[in-house]
Each structure stands twice: as structure tokens, then as C-alpha cells.
Amino acid sequence: MKSFATFFLGLHRFGLELRRIQEIVKNLEVIRVPLANSCFNGLINLRGKIVLAVRLGKFLGLPDTPGGQSLSVVLEMDQELYSLQIDSVGEVLEAEPEQEQPVPASLAESLRPFLRNILRLDQGVLLILDEEKILTGKPFKEWKESERASP
Prior knowledge:
mainly beta, CATH 2.40.50.180, six-stranded mixed β-sheet, 48% strand
């Protein structure tokens, strides 16, 4: 059995495996980075660590939600922290392996590459994000390259 944290971007409900989340924090001040890709909201200071704030909805091709993005799901990958900015938090769900289904071809093409699978639930479906594919996607490659090019 796996545990999933659920959250919302506008009306869209997503999930991440709970074991992959370091923490969820709210209302952190974001320092804008000039000329950064629009998927990046800027940098946040998380107890002395500088963390890249990712506008997850923008990254996934979803429309901006007014007043959203006040919460951050903090993940660690390759010994770096990342903040995926979300609109609101849902509940924690437990799921059996047989509830997991492949990503349907009918979902938006821009979204499909960043999903691990979907969960079939009594109250609908939950789109499970693949954080590794998100954190290694094109905007991140460009960000890393610009960091290496900086003096």
C-alpha cells in the first residue's frame, strides 16, 4: 500500500507519494530572479537554505489561478531542495497497487509526460505526478546551464 499527499492547482487535483515530500510550508517570501523562465517563481529562504520555487501550474501548462500559489511542497532531489508551488492541500490517501492505472492518452499532451500514473478512487481519479520528470524537465536543464555559465 502507498500513501499519497493530494493537492490542488485551481480545480485540478494531483498527488505525490508521501515518502517523496520533505514538507509542506505556506506563505514563504519569494525573491524574484530577473530573466528566469516563467515556470520559476524565484527563490525562497527555507531556514537558511536557498530553494528554487517552481510555479507548478505554469510548468504543467495549466492556467494561472488568481490568489493561488501560497503553499509549497518541498522535495529533495540530488541533494537539492525544490519548492513546487500549489494552491491548496487536500488529504492523505492510501492506495492499493490495483488502484493504479496507466496515464490515459486522452489527457492533455503537455501534462502526460509529467504523470507517473493515475489512481482510480471512489470519488474520481487522482493524477500522480512524477517529480523526477518534473525536476529534470527542459526548464530545469536551462536553469542548470545558466547557473554553470554565471561567473
